[in-house]
Amino acid sequence: MGMANTAKAEQDTTAAARLDVPVVVLSHRAPVQFRREQGKRLIRRGAGGLVTALVGLAGQLDDAVWVCAATTDEDSAAAAEHDGGAVPLVMTAEPTPADGNEADDAPVLGVRLVDVDPEQHEDFYQVVSNPLLWFIQHGLYGLATSPNIGRTERDAYEQGYVPVNEAFADAVAEEVEARGGRALVMLHDYHFYLVADRVRARCPEVVLSHFIHIPWPGPDAWLVLPADIREQILRGLLGNDVVAFHTERFARNFLLCCQELLGLPIDLDTKTVRVGGRVVAARTYPISIDVDALVEMATSDEVEELAAELQRELLPDGQQLLLRVDRTDPSKNIVRGFLAFELLLEQHPELVGTLRFLAFLQPSRLDVPEYSDYLGRIGAIVARVNARHARAGVAPIDLRLQEHYPTAVAAYTLCDAVMVNSLADGMNLVAKEAVTVSRHHAVLCLSESTGAHAELGAFAVTLNPFDIQQQADALYAALTMPARERADRQAAAANVVRGNDVAKWLDAQIADLRLLTGLWSEEPEGPRLAPAARD
């Protein structure tokens, strides 16, 4: 059997390949973006593991549709041309409209772009989703002073978050109903906590899962919200068959919320909660990266050229390179990271002039005051460190407020250590990317508060995100670690990432849903999970 046939045979053994029902995906971010240049419509495919995994799933199915938000004028125009229905696309590297004449194995995906009222979307996204839910779930509020939930926040929830969730739920339900009411619906993230319950009410035969990509805190954190709002959020999520998280801790926290805030019976051994006549499962699927795509990019001519340029600029005399790649989100703990670096240089002056810190930071949500204030604090601490520790006109911190993924990948290949000191992260894919393509056996300095720590902590230098002295000591340990230990740790971490890539992440979810719901006509081999997700 040739290599292509062998690969096809292996692919057909996955749970995804055995699906015999349509799939409807919902996320706020679209897998593509429509834009117009010089009068011509262009379609750009989104980046990231989620798009790669779900587009790969679509390529194995006869019927898949992705429901998402229209975020550009051209998105809205494309949606209007299809009367608000799905736009069929061939999801190759450069997506093209599908015309029905594609090859049978072409990855055709319907993209339904939902155009909602701008004022409603503003309340839904900028007031409730970000920052309110994001801050609660990342533990970012200082409760003595914030948040203050008043009429503005209540109106934003009732007149923004609720109707926008209803609009997306209706779009999903319409897609399910168009397919006879029988489909697998895969919901994503904190924007759509109210969708599942509404979809189930319209489509009782549907199978629903909701993957939450950010942390899920314990019951006390949710007491910030008014009782009726937090109950609606939990009840909305309990419309699913499976609510999925990155870590066991997040899954347990969700079940404890159901018990303590709703008074529902839970079983921590089977990770289930009973609601009405149904059993809902909480499950753990740590998301990963598209390893093959990342390795291909890391060996591309573009990245090789960028790496050579970084080498000339930052490391002309064999200096060591510390790296971080982040959004300027307060949850990323960037200021404390620079404070720890400042301590490192003060306590180990021999590193001054021999160690560079490259920070690629993407400005994030600057229309939210907390985010813009935080960016200002980042700039202030960088200026202070560079003023105190510059040598021969060379500043120790090279701060780049930009997003250019190929340059970040080039830096991954060069760095001696990578710093991830987040206060809270659902996963953190930078950690997985860096160890996968490192050529200098980079030591991963990883916060114990990231989801990635559950998988990679044994091979990392652990960081306490609040203890800047401990972080400084950990950075020093990483930068002075013996070469053999560095190589062993990096190789072991890379093997974990390769063994649990994004394709496996998706396949594990589908396999569980087959076992839990009995939706598919072909019964899987082996015992069913107990108790089943339906009574």
From TrEMBL:
Organism this protein belongs to: Motilibacter peucedani
GO CC field: cytosol
Family: Belongs to the glycosyltransferase 20 family.
Gene Ontology MF terms: alpha,alpha-trehalose-phosphate synthase (UDP-forming) activity; trehalose-phosphatase activity
UniProt GO BP: trehalose biosynthetic process
Lineage: Bacteria, Bacillati, Actinomycetota, Actinomycetes, Motilibacterales
A Pfam family assignment: Glyco_transf_20
Gene3D superfamilies: Glycogen Phosphorylase B
Protein's UniProt name: Trehalose 6-phosphate synthase
